[in-house]
Design brief:
With 490 residues, the chain is of the alpha/beta class. The strands form 6 sheets. Strands 12-7-1-2-3-20 form a 6-stranded mixed beta sheet. The protein has a 5-stranded mixed beta sheet with strand order 15-14-13-18-19. It has a 4-stranded antiparallel beta sheet with strand order 8-11-9-10. α6 packs across α7. The radius of gyration is 33 Å and the shape is elongated.
Length: 490
């Protein structure tokens, strides 16, 4: 039976591209309907697209396989972006005010607009996280209603390369697949694996991927820092392969014998590990290779934690991703960072039901794509697939990402029953709020203008009355004077 309602998300990873389709249930749980994975190591490196044609072919292949399983065409998909294409930059916007000025929401919006207007060479702002506001010399999360003479907004801008954005859209256009919305993969991951207590008390989320390691630092429910390190578990594999073996063999040895931390007392100097039927490697040498690279990754992760928050991580360090499955990974992080509270997020916090073995493995490798699926809220189902026709149906015209961006869809133009995306909701609410503020400002200005006109008219009337009264008195005095002259003549 063909599925009529579902959400589709695609994660562009450095080692694999994953497509997933699922349905959100009334109780908040998610039922996974289909999962497709394709190798992406030959055209995506460190999260950046290097071969547009191969990426487009992979996207098309994933969508077709999902369509076959669902027996329904896919109208659009959610996409997660990450890797070395993104980074965070702090920015401050200052607004000097007149004495005894009370901060309004409009002033706060002007600070955000000024921050959004910032330009960066070859990069653009993908998202902006408000850190806090400095009202004179005091820091506030909500400055509205406070009297001050200087208002400063501190922001964390998430940047990505313009070329990456163009290449990504081009890939989906070539594949004939429309993008419903783009999400930052680290944001989607954090929302799905971190608890409210961890975000509030301060924590560092470390996603140990194949080619990159992503570090997200949270404090008081606000993202404070985001960085992508160009090191991952594949670097360990390549180091092992330097012992003159194929990378596939090195990967197997890493999974079987690799350990992020080994106590010196547990190392057997006489023990050897088999490479193949003819060759072996000393256990101590193998341990040294793995631990050296692991130590480099951990030191780089800890370097990315801002010094202002290094001693505020009461929620600890949360590890996830494929690299978090390495033996003694918690001990290694604990010894190098001196943070005692280490947690491995093996699975997302949402209730997920699936028959897929990779999802049910609960090894952290599917957390990001499940997080993307959880963030999506628009039905991605198109028409039911015609078994006798084309895979996507012969009558249905293909909508591309270019079509969506060329003529942005308005809220009141959505089909009945279509659920707004989070981005569309926020945009609609912001537009409505600004329209209401503009109307209120216009009404207030008209009332003030009318009151001022009435005041001026009243003032003019009083002036004229005063002048008339003065003239009348002068006239009376003149008449008395003339009468006096006439009487004297007589």
């Amino acid at each position: 039976m063909a599925a009529k309602e579902f959400i589709v998300a695609i994660e562009l990873g450095s080692s694999k591209m994953t497509g997933i389709a699922g349905k959100k249930n009334l109780d908040g749980s998610i039922t996974v309907l289909a999962v497709v994975k394709e190798d992406s190591s030959s055209f995506i490196r460190k999260g950046v697209i290097y071969n547009i044609d191969k990426t487009a072919q992979c996207i098309s292949s994933i969508v077709k396989k999902l369509t076959t399983t669902l027996k329904t065409s896919i109208s659009h998909v959610y996409v997660g972006v990450g890797g070395q294409s993104i980074r965070s930059v702090k920015n401050n916007i200052v607004k000097n005010l007149a004495e005894d000025t009370i901060v309004t929401q409009e002033m706060v919006n002007e600070l955000m607009d000024g921050n959004r207007a910032m330009t960066y060479q070859d990069q653009e702002i993908l998202d902006a996280a408000t850190q806090e506001y400095k009202v004179d010399n005091q820091y506030q999360l909500d400055p509205v209603g406070i009297q001050c003479t200087r208002l400063e907004g501190n922001f964390l801008n998430i940047l990505w390369r313009k070329m990456f954005y163009r290449n990504l859209n081009k890939c989906f256009d070539l594949a004939g697949v429309a993008i419903a919305d783009m999400y930052l993969a680290p944001f989607a991951l954090a929302d799905s694996v971190l608890t409210d207590a961890e975000k509030r008390s301060g924590c560092a989320l470390v996603d140990l991927g194949a080619d990159t390691t992503t570090v997200s630092v949270y404090y008081k429910n606000i993202l404070r820092h985001l960085a992508v390190i160009p090191l991952g578990s594949n670097n360990i594999t390549k180091d092992i392969a330097s012992l003159q073996m194929e990378e596939s063999v090195a990967e197997q040895m890493k999974l079987k014998h690799g350990s992020a931390w080994t106590d010196n007392g547990e190392i057997d100097n006489q023990l050897t590990l088999s490479i193949d039927s003819d060759r072996t490697v000393k256990s101590r040498e193998f341990i040294s290779i793995v631990e050296s690279r692991m130590e480099e990754i951990i030191e780089n992760v800890w370097y990315q934690v801002p010094s202002d928050y290094a001693d505020r991580l009461l929620g600890g360090i949360i590890l996830t991703g494929g690299g978090s499955n390495m033996k003694n990974i918690e001990t290694a992080f604990r010894n190098h960072t001196h943070i005692d509270k280490i947690r491995i997020a093996k699975f997302v916090t949402q209730s997920i039901s699936s028959k897929d073995a990779d999802i049910n493995a609960h090894n952290g490798m599917m957390n990001t794509v499940l997080g993307l699926l959880a963030k999506g809220n628009m039905n991605c189902a198109g028409g039911e697939m015609d078994p006798a026709g084309d895979l996507f149906g012969e009558k249905k015209a293909t909508t591309t990402t270019t079509d969506i961006h060329r003529e942005p869809r308005k809220v009141n133009e959505l089909d009945p029953g279509v659920v707004l995306t989070e981005a569309e909701k926020l945009k609609a609410e912001e537009e409505k709020r600004r329209a209401e503020e503009a109307e209120e400002e216009r009404r207030r200005a008209e009332e003030e203008a009318a009151a001022e006109a009435a005041r001026v008219a009243a003032e003019e009337e009083r002036r004229l009355k005063k002048e008339n009264s003065s003239l009348k008195k002068t006239g009376n005095k003149l008449m008395k004077f003339l009468k006096g002259l006439v009487q004297e003549d007589e």
